[in-house]
Amino acid sequence: MFNILLVEDDNNQRLLYEQELRIEGYKIMTAIDGRDALEKFQEQVPDLVILDINMPRMDGIEAIGRILSKNKQIPIIINTAYSSYKNSFMSWAADAYIVKSSDLSELKNKIRELLINRPKDT
Amino acid sequence: MLWDKKCIRCYETHQIRAAEYTMVNEILPLNSDEIINKLRSILIESKRTVHDEDLLKKVDTLCLSLENELKKRDFGNREVFKGTETGRKSEKFWDHNMRDRRKNDNIMDVIEAGLCLLDKDLKIIWANKTLSDWLDLKESPVGFSCKDIFHCNESNIENCEALKVFKGGEGRVLQTWITSKRGKRICVQRIAIPITSRNGDIENVLVHLEDVTISENSLHWLLLLQQLGEKMQGTLHLEKLLQLILTCVTTGHAFGFNRAMLFLVNKEEKVLQGKLAVGPSTPEEANRIWNEISSRYGTLEEILDAIDYGHNFDNTLSSLTKEMKFSLTDTSEIVVACASEKNSIIVFDAANDPRLTEYFRNALGVNEFVCVPLIVKNESLGVIVADNIYTRAPITEDLVNVLSMFANQAALAIENAETYKKLKNKVKQLTKTQELLVRSEKFAAIGSMASYIAHEIRNPLVTIGGFTRSLSRFHFEDPKIKTNLDIILAEVMRLEKILNNITNYSKPSPPEKVASQICEIVKNTCSLMENYFKERNINFCLEHIRDLPPIMAVSSQITQVLFNILMNAVEAMPHGGDLTIKIALVEESLKIDIVDTGTGMTKEELQNIFDPFYTTKTDGTGVGLAICRKIIEEHRGKICVKSEYGKGTTMSLLLPIH
C-alpha cells in the first residue's frame, strides 16, 4: 500500500481528499501546512506528496525546497487553486501541477502515473 | 594752427597736412612779419628824407594798425613755416612752394574724402574735387551756403553740425545716402572739425565727408543677420523654421533672391532630401506677389510675422524640390558636392558648367544660381539653393558671403529644432509608455484581484463539488435525492468553468518560440552587463562565426539563461578575470561556450549544480541553474558544465537548429 502525505490547510478539503484517496486504496497522512508536513515527513517518509501552495506558516514553495533537500526521489504533486504558478519555475521542481477541481479524477490519474514504478510499501 | 585733438585722432596724418597747407596758401600768400618788417624799413628810410612829421606819424599808425590786423589774421601757423624760414629767402623756395601747393591741391582733389572749409556764416570758402564729385555738383560750391550744398533742412538748423562746432560743441556725425556723379550710391558720414586761431577762437570749420558705404553695408548685414538670427532661434518648429529661412532668402528686405530651395541631410537614409522651396512659378506670379508684398508690408519684421505657416507650398518648384533625393555619395550632383565640400558654389553659366547634372540643370532651368551649405559643428546639415530667375540680377560674391553666414545661423537653428523635435518625440514616447504601464498595472491589479477571488471561491467549491460527487456514488431510495445532487454538481461545474475563464484571463499566455538570432540575444544580454563587467574588472570577449543560422527560441528565456550563467561566472571571479563567449556550429546545433577564469568547482558541487535549491552561495536561492536547465530542455537542447577547481569553469549550451 502506497503512503501519501497530503498537505492542505483547508479542513473540509483535506477531509474530502483523505476520503477519496482512501477509497482509491492509499494510506493517507495529513499535514495542515508546510512545517507540519516536514515533521510528518521526518516521522515517516511517504511514497508521494500532495502539496497545496498557499498555506499559513510555511507555504508549499518553501516546503518543496525543504523536502527535496532531504529526499530527491519522492514525487511531488502541486495541487493548488492557482493556475498562475503553472509556468513559474517553482512548479518545475515538482513532478506535476494540478489545478484544484471538484472533479478529482485528474489528481487520481496523476498519482497512479507517478507511483506506477515505485515498489509498494509493505 | 591749433587743431582740435579729438578731430586729429579721426584723421590720417597726410590728410591733415594736406589740408593745412592748402588753407595757409589760400588765405595768407605772404608772411605777416615779412610785410611789417618791409613797411618798417621803408618808414625808417623815409624818416631821413621826409620831414613831414604828420605824414610820418600817419604812416606809422597805418603800419601799427596793419600789424595788428595782420596779427589778428595770423593763424598761428608758425609751426608749419618754421622749417622753411631759412629756405624762404632764396628764390628756389617760391618754386618749391608753388610745386608743393599744386601737389597738395592734387592730393586734395584725388583724396577719397570730401572736404570743404566753412566760414562763420557757414559759407563754403574752399572745397576739394571729391566733394563736388560725390555731391554731383555742376559748379564749384565755393561761395555757396553749406546748407544749399548739403540740402539741409532749414527747420532743423539747430542740428547743423558746423553750427554746433562753431558754438564750441562737438563735430557731429551724420550718415546720409547720396548718389555720386558716376551714379554710385554711397553712404557718407559728415564730420565737422573746428579750426581755431592762436587765441582759441574758432575761425573756420572743416567739414569732412567720409565714404562709409562698406562699413554701413556691413553694419546693415550684421543687423539683419542678428535680426534674422533672433527670429530663427525663436522658432523651434522645424517646418516653420524651414519656411522662415527660405522667406528670409527670398524677401526683398533681406537677401532678395527670386527663388530658394532647401535640402536637408537624412543621416539614416544617407541622402540629401529636397524639403521645401519658396518662389513664384511664373514671372507674372512673381510680379503679382512682389507688388502685393511691397504694398502690404513695410518692414522685414512685418513680413516674417505675416508668414502663413499653415499655407501649403504646393507650387511647382516646391513639389519638384520634394521629389529630389540624392545619395550622399553622389558628388556629381552639385548640391551633394556643396554639402560634402562645405563651401558655397556659385554657378554663372549652368548650361556649360560641367559640375551640373542634366537633371539638375533642367529642374532649375536657370543659368545663374548659388548653392550654400548649412554647416553646424563642421558638419553639413543641408544646402540652400537660390537664384534670380526673373529679375536676372547678378549674384555677387559679397552677397553669397553674407548668405553663407546666414546659412550657418540657419543651420544652428535647424539643429536646435531637430533636437527639440527629437526630445519632444522622446517625451511623447515616454508619456505613452507611462500610460501603457499605468494601464497594464491596472489590468494587473484587476487580474490579481480576480485571481484572488477565484482562488478563494474555488477552494470551497472544490469541497462542495467533491463531496457531492462522493455522495452521488451512494444508492438512494428516493430518486429525487440523486436528481438534486446532480443539480448541485452541475451548478458547481458551471461555477468552476466561470472561474477557469477568469483565471485564464488573468494568466499570461505561455511564451512562443520564434526564429531568433542567438548572436543578437547574446550581444544584447552582454551589452546590459557591460558596466557590471567593467566594475568587476572582467575582460569580456565574444567570438562567433559569421552568418549563424537562426534557431526557434523564446529570446527572453534564453536571455535569462545567459544572465544566470554570466552572473555565476562573474561571481566566480571576485578579483576579475577573462570571460569569453564562443558561439560555434556543431553538427545540427549551435554550441555556446561560456568560459571563465574563476575559482572553479569541486566534483561534489559539479554533481549538484542543476538541482533545484542547491546553492553554494550564502544569499542564493539555488534555483538559477535549475531554471536554466529547464529552459534549455524546453528548447530541446542540452546544458553541460566542465570545471577545474582553481582554474575556471566552462558552461556549454547546445541548441538544435531545427
Structural class designation of chain B: alpha+beta
Radius of gyration of chain A: 13 Å
State the major sheet of chain A. 5 strands, parallel
By helix and strand content of chain A, what is the structural category?
alpha/beta
When the domains of chain A are counted, the total is 1
Indicate the percent of residues in helices of chain B: 40-55%
| β-sheet strand percentage of chain A | 15-25%
**Taking all residues together, what is the mean pLDDT of chain A?**
85
Spell out the CATH superfamily of chain A: Response regulator
What ranges of chain A have pLDDT less than 50 throughout 5 or more consecutive residues? none
Distance between the termini of chain B: 108 Å
Description:
The complex is a heterodimer of chains A (122) and B (658). Chain A is built from 5 helices and 5 strands; from the N terminus they run βαβαβαβαβα. Chain A is α/β, with parallel strands linked by helices. Chain A has a 5-stranded parallel β-sheet, with helices on both faces. Chain A starts with a strand and ends in a 7-residue tail after the last helix. Chain B contains 23 helices and 19 strands. Chain B is elongated, with a radius of gyration of 49 Å. In chain B, strands 1, 2, 3, 4, 5 and 6 form a 6-stranded antiparallel β-sheet that branches. A 6-stranded antiparallel β-sheet of chain B has the order 9-8-7-12-11-10. In chain B, strand 7 and strand 8 form a beta hairpin. Chain B is α+β, with helices and mostly antiparallel strands and 658 residues long. In chain B, helix 3 packs antiparallel against helix 4. Chain B has 3 domains: 165 residues, Beta-Lactamase (2-Layer Sandwich); 286 residues, 2-Layer Sandwich (Beta-Lactamase); 143 residues, Heat Shock Protein 90 (2-Layer Sandwich), CATH 3.30.565.10. At the A-B interface, helix 1, helix 3 and helix 4 of A face helix 18, helix 19 and helix 23 of B.
